[in-house]
Amino acid sequence: TKNVDILGIPVSSIDRHTLKNNLISHIENAEKSFVVTANPEIVMTAKKNNSYMSAILSASYITADGIGIVKASRIMNNPLPERVAGYDLMVDFIRVSQEYSYKIFLLGAKPEVITQTVRNLEKYYPNLHIAGYHDGYFNIHDEEETTLIVERIRALEPDLIFVGLGVPRQEEWVAENYHRFDKGVFLCVGGSFDVLAG
Ligand code: UDP
């Protein structure tokens, strides 16, 4: 995939449909992938915080999650095809997972929120295979706590892991732990669990 430089961030020149197909083929081939949907908050945080910038740069795909980023790319004569938002990708992959029987894991949000998100998903997507979930209120830098969560996720062998720990924690968590997984598409989804908990 070609990249477009937006304030030092190589944003993937890819549309939502192509990215969806690429991620499906990664799942089919049991390959790992890390997707960051770069919204303005992410871009600004990366500008200020070098270690967060490194985390972002380790992603397989960085999409433009903001019309401002798409417009900036046009001004630079290197147009990105369209906005690709984390929430939209999450909904795409809930549908894809139900259709193709992919196993998903949800990580993030408050305990009462994530249980409600799971309840809603079970209600609206009765054939969706939710392998497991965990709230997002743990210390991402606590080695013991993180190892327990990583081991639990690894044992469940999910095809997709939705990570909604907020910025910058979600991308830092994936970047730090990615090497411990053999497979899985890691999709950072911000506050999407709260939306799905409705
Ligand atoms: N979140 C979390 N752990 C934390 C902080 C936030 O799981 O320590 C979750 C929060 O409950 C929400 C999501 O991350 O579901 C996004 O949080 P917030 O709106 O604060 O961040 P932003 O939208 O700015 O990324």
TrEMBL record:
Highest taxon, organism lineage: Bacteria
Pathway note: Cell wall biogenesis; teichoic acid biosynthesis
Reactions catalysed: UDP-N-acetyl-alpha-D-mannosamine + N-acetyl-alpha-D-glucosaminyl-di-trans,octa-cis-undecaprenyl diphosphate = N-acetyl-beta-D-mannosaminyl-(1->4)-N-acetyl-alpha-D-glucosaminyl di-trans,octa-cis-undecaprenyl diphosphate + UDP + H(+)
Catalytic EC class: transferase
Record has Nucleotidyltransferase as a keyword: no
Glycosyltransferase is among the record's keywords: yes
Function: Catalyzes the conversion of GlcNAc-PP-undecaprenol into ManNAc-GlcNAc-PP-undecaprenol, the first committed lipid intermediate in the de novo synthesis of teichoic acid.
Annotated family: Belongs to the glycosyltransferase 26 family. TagA/TarA subfamily.
Protein name: N-acetylglucosaminyldiphosphoundecaprenol N-acetyl-beta-D-mannosaminyltransferase
Protein's organism: Salimicrobium salexigens
Span within the parent record: 3 to 200 of 249
